[in-house]
Amino acid sequence: LQPSPAMVGAMTEDLKNKAAVVTGASTGIGEATVRALRAEGWTIFAVARRAERLAALEAETGAVGITADIVEDADVARLLAEVTAAGGIDTLINIAGGARGTDRVAQAQTDDWDWMYRVNVLGTMKLTRAFLPMLREHGEGTVLNLTSTAGLVAYEGGAGYNAAKFAQHAMTGAL
Question: What is the per-residue pLDDT across 26-76, written as a single tens digit (0 to 9) for each?
């Protein structure tokens, strides 16, 4: 079956009215997500810590770049205020995260584990908590948390990242 031209037009028009926050937007999957959604006509609030990379992405794609650190409460509050003032979103895409170190548990570096937990788990929680009322009000709000296969299968040298991604995966399931 093929959708009718009217149906395709309606779906395309609906996509053009979509708006999303995309975290981790200055590189990798986050940057690619911004580019892909902007190409589909979405309004995108691209969020990352690296202002210079965000400015370049904003200039290239027309996304709204917002420099913020998702683990900082003041940055999350400012981000929410800016997005609200601009009309809000119906989609939150939590991509920001990362791994530090490849130590086994016996050699674990507390600072690395702390950073991974704060960025992958607490950052995702803070953004989700901040935007849930807006998404619920919209009635069709979507939260997408990009986790990792590291959140499903543990591997040697990945204990800290595995722990953070398992926690993020569990939080997503609980949500």
Answer: 999 999 999 999 999 999 999 999 999 999 999 999 999 999 999 999 999
CA–CA separation, 38 vs 48, rounded Å? 17
Catalytic residue among 45, 161, 162, 164: 161
Degrees, nearest 5: CA angle 102-26-131: 95
Closest CA to 89 of 51, 43, 57: 43
The percent of residues above 70 in pLDDT, for the chain, comes to 91
Cα 145 from chain centroid (whole Å)? 6
Is 161 among the catalytic positions? yes
Give the residue among 124, 130, 133 at the shortest CA–CA distance from 174: 124
* Residue 150 pLDDT class (50, 70, 90 cuts): confident
The one-letter amino acid at 158: G
Question: Which pTM value belongs to this model?
Answer: 0.87
The pair of three-digit structure tokens given for residue 171, joined into one six-digit string: 């939080």
Q: With DSSP H G I counted as helix, E B as strand and the rest as coil, what are the percentages for the chain, rounded to 5?
A: 55, 15, 30
| Structural tokens at position 21 | 């926050």
- At residue 14, the pLDDT reads 54
What are 86's two structure tokens?
A: 């601009």
68, 47 contact by CB (below 8 A): yes
